[in-house]
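writing this on my phone so excuse typos. first protein, seq and then structure
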Amino acid sequence: MLQPGCNKVGGVTSKPIECRVYVCGRVMIERRDRVLSDGALAGPQGRLLFAFLATRRNQPISKTEVIDAVWGTRTPPSADTTINAITSKLRAALRTLGIPAPHGVATEVGTYQLLVPNAWIDLEHARMAIDRAEGALRRDAPGEAWPDANVAAAIASQSFLPEEQHPWVHRQRETLARVLRRALLVLSVVSTRNGEYELGIQHAAEALSAEPFDELACQALMRAHAAAGNRAEALRVYSKCRKLFRDELGATPSPQTEAVFLQILRAAD
């Protein structure tokens, strides 16, 4: 697990990180040598509230939204009183890490917001990391893309509140799934460029398996097979993609995907 220290973004050192918040995988918060996780976060509902606010820390959230995030359609009649009690317990838990008021869970004018100074949040970091990785690829700097893509993939591959079924939880899982697919595609491109063809194939195949209609994954898998010298398999990937689009969507792959197919087809001539 990462240790507190200075955070680098785009090669520039920002303010020292005072604490690290993890909502992917095991929900926890670390500050210095102390850790709060799961049951210590004011119970299951406190953990849910903490994760919800952590995913939206840059904006105050109305009490109505907070109550809906915790209970959804099963909101109890006493929700208003109960959410206040949960918030109070969560504040008390955060104080054990040395995060006193007005930081922690701030409530003002009927809104809630997680205010933790200089906090690193894994989900935010994954999104920024994949943006940097894709930017590095566009600059033709695969060596810079690789580590950020690995970090994004490591975070996004973890489960997000697996026992919860709230709509906002599902949306967050979808966001993480997109981050993971983007990271896998970067890793596929870099691996293929480095001559690590099996890795390139593996990463692209995983991305395509997660979303069979992802044409970028189809293109990456075709290129990886072709680079590995398996032109026939590359063409089979295109054939399967075309059949899927025809059978399920009544459409054909994009001109970009067809161009990759034609490039591979003509390469043997």
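second protein below, same order as before
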Amino acid sequence: MNKNQKIIITGGAGFLGSHLVKCFIQEGYNKNNIFIPRTKDFDLRHENDIKRMFEQFPAEVVIHLAANVGGIGYNQKFPGSLFYDNLKMGTELIEQARKNNVKKFVSIGTVCAYPKHTKVPFKEKDLWKGYPEETNAPYGLAKKMQLVQAQAYRQQYGFNAIFLLPVNLYGPGDNFNPKSSHVIPALIRKVYLAKKNNKNSITVWGTGKASREFLYVKNAAEGIFLAAKKYNKSKPVNLGSHMEITIKELINLIADLMNYKGKINWDTSKPDGQPRRCLDTSRAEKEFGFKAKTDFEKGLKETIGWYVERENKNL
């Protein structure tokens, strides 16, 4: 990559994408050479829209962040849409990128692609050793097919596509919509509303025993940027912080940081999702020098602060 190349960043106006765009600009890339397709103009599930996008902006690099994505409840409600939308976007984009002589394609996968009972920490070589956790399998498998396509196109066409596997992201600007948010924004919102409405208890899905790993959004953007610049191999690469926290520990930490003293109840009729998540991040460090820098509690405080300030302004 060089700083004068034309770059398409799908999802570039979103939570992760906006940070990635800033990362490129801060590193001296020309913002006029970065194109962010918007859904109202280009439906990336449709071949003709993607063809038109490349006609209007003949990019040399594509970074595919756009996705239909949400938390456990959203995955349970819309498994078909999640499978179809993400599979179509990835497949059509990679094919049209190849036909338009794109020099590099960066595909963003998901930790949900890993088998349900993967040995911790998750190593990239274990990606095919079982079926994903059922509640997010349609989403995880649709994204995983981008890895299959990337490797097949590299073999047949010499197409330079790479595949990254980020864990759950969090940070200021996250999606706090209760219908589609992931666990950290969902819990922050739940505690905020309990405090606001003077409720002496909250209810959290599952048993609290499941564990998760979280990556601060700015760190994720840095990892993608470094991979786009430096990594050109077929093997998938984990992007994470190499930490692990149970959902019970997480809600207790959020309650402490938000000074909430109420009781935490568990709705065990709701699913836990994947039992554990924690990545081996050694390949990312070895191949392109990425290591997450933000302390989890510090990042969590910033996320809470951003959300509370925004909500208080709307009162």
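The radius of gyration is 19 Å. thats all i got for now
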